[in-house]
Amino acid sequence: MNKRKRFGEILLEAKVVTEPVLQLALEKQRGSSKRLGQVLEEMGVVTEKDTAVALARQFDFRTVQNLAGYSFPKEVLALFSSEIALKKNLFPLKLDQKTLFLAMVNPLDMDTIDDISFRTGLRVVPCVTTPAEIQAAVHQHYLGGAPSESKEPESDWWTILVVDDQELVRSAVIAALRKEGYETIEATNGADGLKTACQRHPHLIISDTIMPRMDGFEMFRALQANNQTTRIPVIALSSKSSAEEEAKLLDAGYFDFVAKPINPVRLAARVRRALKAVYGTTAPPPKP
């Protein structure tokens, strides 16, 4: 059994998609940070469940669901942080002696499986599930409840998340935003930014690209892979102000780019443009 077969080939063999549809999806995926399955879902061709079932049938994997409704031992959950679970789309299910049963969106990701096996010394048995199942389980078992159960009060105005490891930069951005009347929340690295975005669902994210623990690119890819955050526009901050850097960030899927040092007038204009383009309203839409 060849577990390194490409995902598109599996969907073709399972007759979930046709060759023309697959080629169109691959074209749409090129240059973005989205999974092929996510692109197909956005095209309305398949559902998350379709892709999970296709993988399970093709390779005789077990499927798992309702992960948020079960309880899991602390020692099992401690194998991964919430940011790794969200970034890699996986969730630890059970330890049986030297075997780890692991829920995964992509059980063919042998690099991740090999890395986990090497790091933990455990044999990994993948089980198939959907991104929504992973996200619900992470919120329930790592983040203390569903996103709507945030302990912090909800704002009735635009909420913007600022992610940067440099305090002076964060302070400058936040000051410029608050002067315009926006509500702000902040994080000091990509891992905390990802967790905060999943918990608070800001209307816009402004993020540095180079940070410790999880950089801005990794955070952005994880946000794009998460159905609950994929539509949040992200403006990149970078100390590199070249045209090449701007082109790279825009091609990667960022909504916009602002060079450091921060110009408050330019930043405010880019923020207004992003909110109007994405939401098209003068008042914030309800949060999920």
Automatic annotation (TrEMBL):
It comes from the Bacteria. InterPro entries: Bact_response_regulator (IPR050595), CheY-like_superfamily (IPR011006), Sig_transdc_resp-reg_receiver (IPR001789), T2SS_E_N_sf (IPR037257), T2SS_GspE_N (IPR007831). Residues 159-275 form the Response regulatory domain. GO terms for biological process: phosphorelay signal transduction system. It holds the Pfam family Response_reg. The modification 4-aspartylphosphate is found at D208. PROSITE patterns: RESPONSE_REGULATORY (PS50110). The keyword Phosphoprotein applies. Keywords: Phosphoprotein. This is Response regulator.
